[in-house]
Amino acid sequence: MHPSYLILNILLCSQLVNASDSILARRFKEVLKLADDVYLIPKHPNCYKNRTLPYVALGPCRSTFLDCTEVNSRKACLFPGHVFSEVEQRCKSKLVSPECSYSHETRLKSHRTLNQFCRLRPNGKFRHPNHCGRIIHCFDDIMIEIEPCGDGLAFDEYLKKCVYAQFVPGCDVNVVSKCNPWDTMQADCHGYERCFAGQLIRMHCDSGLAYNAVSMVCDYEKNVPSCVTK
Predict the structure, then answer these.
(1) What values do phi and psi take at 25, rounded to 5?
(2) Contact (CB, 8 A) for 47 and 67
(3) What distance in Å separates the CA atoms of residue 26 and residue 24, rounded to the nearest whole number?
(4) Residue 39 DSSP one-character state
(5) Do 85 and 123 share a domain, yes or no?
(6) Sign (positive/negative) of CA torsion 97, 110, 124, 179?
(7) Which of 86, 106, 166, 207 has CB atoms 3.0–4.6 Å from 57's, for a disulfide?
(8) pLDDT band of 116, cuts 50, 70, 90
(9) What is the rounded (10 degree) CA torsion for 184, 84, 159, 176?
(10) Total Cβ atoms within 10 A of residue 12
(11) Is the pLDDT of residue 155 over 60?
(12) Strand arrangement of the beta sheet that strand 124-128 belongs to
């Protein structure tokens, strides 16, 4: 018996001592209805999308997640700077979380672009409409651009990976490189430019992080003296 039913049965017995048959029947129906309301609260829809996972993230590189072992349970990581890793099923530092490995991810601000591209697509990764090598990750109402493919490669939406551009219909293989692959140049404390697919692309560090020119990653501001907020 589910614990909620056991508690309600005890409550029922305590309240119906010496009651008439009509009162007993009416009260019994009310308690059963309450039990159903308590026990049948639906889980978050994302729990049904990932039936094999006990814990489901509410977005990539976010601290909030769902405990699908409980009814309608939304939780958050306890420590600041920690996010929930759906891959590892636990909270860990943003700097080492696999979902945050693309520290340069750029959120696309245009609501018009969001409505036209992600709104009518399921969650997942898709090729950028204007560049075969760039990858867009759609997640509910969030749209982010993640690390693109290298020179001469294009993102295959069917295989969900980068392949040689000549194997992706409509993708130009004769792209003129405007920079050296993986070149990185610091622009300011909150972002930098990196060479992908022959083009310089502007990247942004997340809030509270700054670009560290030594380690060439987005790092805590305290580790980048020139970028410490006064």
Answers:
(1) -65, -45
(2) no
(3) 6
(4) H
(5) no
(6) negative
(7) 86
(8) low
(9) -10
(10) 17
(11) yes
(12) 106-107, 142-146, 131-139, 124-128
In whole angstroms, give the CA distance from residue 206 to residue 103: 7
This prediction has a pTM of 0.33
- The candidate with the shortest Cα–Cα distance to 182, out of 168, 201, 165, is 201
User: Token digits for 15?
Assistant: 């309240």
Candidates 199, 204, 197; CA nearest to 149 is: 197
Q: Are residues 114 and 61 in the same domain?
A: no
**Inter-CA distances, 28 with 11, 15, 22, 109, Å:** 11, 10, 10, 55
Cα–Cα distance for residue pair 86/97, rounded to 1 Å: 10
Q: What is the domain extent for residue 56?
A: 45-99
11, amino acid identity: L
Answer yes or no: are the C-beta atoms of 85 and 96 closer than 8 Å.
Answer: no
Amino acid at 149: C
Q: Are 16 and 116 members of one domain?
A: no
Q: Which two tokens stand for residue 207?
A: 């809030």
Residue 98 has phi, psi (to 5 degrees) of -60, -30
Q: Which of the pair, 4 or 188, is modelled with greater confidence?
A: 188
The secondary element (H helix, E strand) that includes residue 3 is helix 3-15
Q: Which residue has the higher pLDDT, 11 or 221?
A: 221
Amino acid type, 132? C
